[in-house]
Each structure stands twice: as C-alpha cells, then as structure tokens.
Design a protein that fits this description.
Elements: H1 2-22, H2 26-29, H3 35-45, H4 47-51, E1 56-57, E2 68-69, H5 70-77, E3 92-99, E4 102-112, E5 117-127, E6 130-140, H6 151-163, E7 170-175, E8 178-180
Parallel strand pairs: 6-7
Antiparallel strand pairs: 1-2, 3-4, 4-5, 5-6, 7-8
Length: 184
C-alpha cells in the first residue's frame, strides 16, 4: 500500500511542479490564433481560475440573481465571436471577444509571460443583479492595484474600448476583495 501511495504522490507532485513551471507557455504559443481557440485551452487548464482574484458577482451572465466567479464571467464574455489575438510585445498577449448571443457584453484579458502577471476587463450591463442601459467596465487583477495598472495595460484597455466604440459610464475595479469606483 505504501509503495503505491508513494508512486502516486511522486507522480502527482511531479505533474503539479511541471504545470507550475510551464503554465505561462501558452502566451508564446497563442500568437496567430483567435481568442476562442485559446480561451478553451485556458479553461481546461484552470489557468484563469488560478490567476484571477477570488471574487463572485451577479453580472447578469447566469441564472437570475446568480453570482459568477471572475474566471467564469471572463470565459463567458470571451466565448462568443472572437477577435484576433494582439501581441503588444513578444512577452505579452491580449485576448478579446464578446459574449455569445450578446455581443454588447465584451471581455479583455492581458497577460505577460515574462513577468507572470495579468489583468482582465469586462463590459457588462448588470451589476449586483441590477440592469443599467449604459455599459459598465469592471477591472480585476491579482497583480495590480486600482489606479496603478501599468501604462501598457491601460493603453491596451483604452485602445480596445475605442476600437469597439465603447465609453463606459461606470468603472469598477476590484482590489483586495473590495470593489472601488476608480478610473484607469
């Protein structure tokens, strides 16, 4: 019994450590693809669940009054008609798309494989279960505080919003488990 447990434990530990070392390799191998082909791979790897802050909210993506985790919300808005992937530099990638059957709701994900940092943004119309007819922007990152996003991330989010002709009236940013009304 001990032998099999040791073999299983060794196998498990090796695979977990291997995954931890290679989990950011998808950034370099995603260039030239579209968002949908990448997002499903990230979902399978649970990458977004590991890299995004632990937070749930009702963005109107699930059943009525049902909160979605951030990784689920981002996958929802990145699973519709995809945009081509943008590579601002050799270490970074930007994934964008809109929600299937609701393309007014959109998603953005920036990742840098060298720094192992990422940030997300979603455009939505429901917050805490309340509908608003104007688009709203929600930002989150484990790596950056609200108001302190790096210039490259801010410029990519602003360029994305401009390219989609979006001007959200409300911007919310998640920091340390609390939502702030801060601008980029």
């Amino acid at each position: 019994m001990g032998y099999y447990f040791l073999r299983f434990y060794s196998f498990f530990l090796f695979n977990v450590l291997s995954y931890a070392q290679t989990s950011w390799e998808w950034v370099g191998s995603s260039k030239g693809k579209n968002t949908n082909s990448v997002i499903w791979e990230l979902k399978k790897l649970n990458f977004l669940k590991a890299e995004l802050p632990k937070f749930s909210e009702d963005f109107g993506f699930g059943k009525k009054r049902q909160k979605s985790r951030l990784d689920e919300a981002l996958i929802t808005v990145l699973s519709g008609p995809p945009d081509d992937i943008i590579s601002p530099n050799e270490d970074s990638i930007v994934l964008t798309a809109c929600r299937h059957h609701s393309c007014d709701e959109k998603g953005f994900y920036w990742a840098n494989s060298k720094e192992k940092k990422s940030a997300m943004a979603i455009v939505h119309f429901v917050y805490q279960g309340k509908f608003d007819k104007t688009p709203q922007l929600f930002l989150a990152s484990k790596n950056f505080k609200c108001g302190e996003y790096p210039a490259v991330v801010k410029s990519q989010i602003k360029a994305w919003l401009e390219s989609k002709k979006l001007n959200p009236e409300k911007t919310r940013c998640l920091q340390d488990g609390h939502v702030n009304n801060k601008m980029l």
